[in-house]
């Protein structure tokens, strides 16, 4: 379980990115974090694993207060949090397997020198995860030989290799076509359900968020303005989060765009 209490962040520039955020994410719950550009979504995700230092408040993972940890204790705690990034953050010239195994070392600097030290269990886990994400036969390919969807699958396997207690996911589909985006969101949802793993997904696409989250949190100007079930995301709520729009038209445009962009060639390339 993850608990945020009175979390606030003011950057040195004076930008107040988050104001008094408080919510709890129980085991197994997938939270879609939505809001307009600049609402504070990335800042919130990064305050949880302390890539950004919160100005006030607390973040509790299980029974560990993360906000007061330093150095080694912080590095150890970060290994309990799996991160999945928009741009995958793979080491391009290493193989798929090596990238997945790197999850074992979390955020430890200089991990490359330890590559030879993985034990049998780590490697067996990596193989089973590659099977899970549909990439087993590609284990020995270099990361730079993969499509975007395949890279993101490696990113998911790497995060799971950490055996995390929480997944933080930052715009996982922003670089992907609509069909691959749905496949990736479905995969994240499935692995969270299977492992009873809580996740917070920063996601721009409201329809995807609605389809694949158990709960939606809407941020606007650094504050939570909606916290509820995906089906409660009415046009009025969307206006509260994003401001005035013709939501019926936005939905139609989004559907048309999805249909236009899902060409058969792309489907084949990304379908693994
Ligand atoms: N490193 C930084 N220094 C100063 N201000 C920052 C920094 N990072 C973000 N901000 C400010 O904090 C606020 C929240 O930004 P953040 O990137 O968290 O929003 P976001 O919802 O993730 O936006 P987007 O969807 O465009 O990525 C914005 O006003 C932004 O300008």
UniProtKB/TrEMBL annotation:
CDD domains: ABC_PhnC_transporter. The keyword rRNA-binding does not apply. Keywords: ATP-binding, Cell inner membrane, Cell membrane, Membrane, Nucleotide-binding, Translocase, Transport. Residues 249-272 are annotated as: Disordered. Pfam families: ABC_tran. Signal peptide: none annotated. One of its GO terms (molecular function) is ATP binding. It is a peripheral membrane protein. It is found in: Cell inner membrane. Its main location: membrane. Residues 2-246 form the ABC transporter domain. The keyword Nuclease does not apply. SUPFAM superfamilies: P-loop containing nucleoside triphosphate hydrolases (SSF52540). This is Phosphonate transport system ATP-binding protein. It comes from Marinobacter salarius.
């Amino acid at each position: 379980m993850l608990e945020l209490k009175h979390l606030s962040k003011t950057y040195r520039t004076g930008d107040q990115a988050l104001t008094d955020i408080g919510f709890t994410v129980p085991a197994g719950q997938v939270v879609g974090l939505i809001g307009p550009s600049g609402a504070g979504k990335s800042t919130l995700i990064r305050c949880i694993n302390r890539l950004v230092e919160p100005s006030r408040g607390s973040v509790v993972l299980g029974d560990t207060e993360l906000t007061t940890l330093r150095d080694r204790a912080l590095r150890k705690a970060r290994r309990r949090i799996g991160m999945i990034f928009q741009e995958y953050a793979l080491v391009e010239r290493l193989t798929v397997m090596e990238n997945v195994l790197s999850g074992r070392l979390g955020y430890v600097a200089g991990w490359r020198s330890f590559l030879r030290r993985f034990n049998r269990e780590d490697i067996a886990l990596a193989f089973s995860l590659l099977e899970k994400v549909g990439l087993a036969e590609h284990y020995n390919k270099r990361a730079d030989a993969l499509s975007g969807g395949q890279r993101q699958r490696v990113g998911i396997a790497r995060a799971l290799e950490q055996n995390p207690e929480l997944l933080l996911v930052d715009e996982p589909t922003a670089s992907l076509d609509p069909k691959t985006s749905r496949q990736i969101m479905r995969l994240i949802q499935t692995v969270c359900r299977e492992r009873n793993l809580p996740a917070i997904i920063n996601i721009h696409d409201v329809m995807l968020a609605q389809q694949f989250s158990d709960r939606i949190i809407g941020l606007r100007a650094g504050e939570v303005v909606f916290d509820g079930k995906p089906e409660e995301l009415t046009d009025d709520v969307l206006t509260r989060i994003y401001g005035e729009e013709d939501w019926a038209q936005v939905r139609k445009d989004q559907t048309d765009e999805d249909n236009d962009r899902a060409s058969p060639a792309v489907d084949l390339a990304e379908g693994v």
